[in-house]
Amino acid sequence: MEDICELCWRYPVKTTEHHLIPKQHGGVHGPTAQLCSPCHRQIHALFSNQELARFYNRLERIQDHPDMKNYLKWIRKQDPAKRITTRKANRRK
User: Fold this and answer.
1) Residue 30: count of CB within 10 angstroms of its CB
2) Where does the pLDDT of residue 90 fall: very low under 50, low under 70, confident under 90, or very high at 90 and above?
3) Residue 16 burial by CB count (10 A; 0-12/13-18/19+): exposed, middle or buried?
4) DSSP string covering 52-92
5) Beta-bridge partners for 54
């Protein structure tokens, strides 16, 4: 199914369901967002599940992180059909 990514607003893109509170931290039935695969991978490359559960559990907070702001500025210029690779953040390695 092709849709709009709720984080970068690119379309048409295939989206995946992102649990704003990770399932392992009680978010099984919690709020979710429809994200394109590159944005979904970028979130998990930047933040641990513990960080996502404790603070980055709303799209606005994720968008406000400086590294994510830079990523979003870049990704919005990319063709939605382009394959995007993701690298884990140095602080997560």
Assistant:
1) 14
2) low
3) middle
4) HHHT--SHHHHHHSHHHHHHHHHHTTS-TTS-------GGG
5) none
C-alpha to C-alpha distance for 52 and 56, rounded to whole angstroms: 4
Q: Which 3 state secondary structure label does DSSP give 50?
A: helix
For residue 14, list its beta bridge partners: 2
Average pLDDT over residues 54-58: 96
- CA 75 to CA 36: how far, in whole Å? 11
| Torsion sign (Cα): 26, 90, 7, 66 | positive
Q: pLDDT tens across 12-22, in order?
A: 999 999 999 99
Backbone phi, then psi, for 19, in 5-degree steps?
-80, 120
What does the pLDDT look like over 26-45, one tens digit per residue?
888 989 999 999 999 999 99
